[in-house]
Amino acid sequence: MKPFDLVMFDLDGTLVETAPEIMDAVNDALRQFGLPDVAQKMVDDWIGHGTQELLVKALAQVTQSSAEAVRSGTLLSQVVPVYNMAYKARCGTRSHLYPQVRETLLALQQQGVKLAVVTNKEGRYTQIVLDEHQLSDLFDVVISGDTFATKKPTPVGVAHCLARFGVRPERALFVGDSSIDVATARAAGVPVWMLPYGYNMGEPIEACAPDRIIQDISELLKQELLAQ
């Protein structure tokens, strides 16, 4: 019997290490406006709420403004299309799969488990990352930050996956790397396991109180853990 009928994954910081090329694209865009670079650690801590919010935080940092001022100003709307072009060019240049990702996804697929991505990354970027790392064919459904009117931590994406495959919440699992993912899974009534190596806004993953912390996703295949 399969341990789960459906496993849903976050993308950035869970399946793929994308932060270095996101930082590169942010700095490419900032330089176009004569603004200083931001550091990798800053970008790591800003990932999670989607591109718009990441750029808000970056611009607030380099202009020494509040996030509210950035959102209401004109610079953000000018920077966004420049970033879009930069990130499209950067996708796949400095990202890589985390350990055991492809092997685990293939094993779950062969067991008949339905697989989904539920990310706050915009769809155009989600598809590029999945394609660059040859993951697209492994997922039955992909939910991006702009698929529905709201994104994580609202549970609409998870609820859609449950309904699409006719899976009860207790027969599904969400795997992520941040408090956003835990809140999303909790709102949907789905068990949630966390990975410790991703992007959790600078906070320790233990503070999210997930059901389990695993060291890499191959632990999804360990029968002794699944039986607990």
Structure description:
It is a single chain. The protein has helices spanning 19-32, 40-46, 51-63, 67-72, 75-90, 101-110, 123-132, 156-165, 179-188, 223-226, and strands at 6-9, 16-17, 96-97, 114-118, 141-143, 172-176, 192-194, 212-213. By secondary structure, the protein is of the alpha/beta class. Helix 1 crosses helix 5 (75-90). The radius of gyration is 18 Å and the shape is globular. The model has no long low-confidence stretch (mean pLDDT 94).
What labels describe this entry?
single chain, 228 residues, alpha/beta, six-stranded parallel β-sheet, 11% strand, globular
Topology, please?
Elements: E1 6-9, E2 16-17, H1 19-32, H2 40-46, H3 51-63, H4 67-72, H5 75-90, E3 96-97, H6 101-110, E4 114-118, H7 123-132, E5 141-143, H8 156-165, E6 172-176, H9 179-188, E7 192-194, E8 212-213, H10 223-226
Parallel strand pairs: 1-4, 1-6, 4-5, 6-7, 7-8
Antiparallel strand pairs: 2-3
Helix pairs in contact: 1-5, 3-5
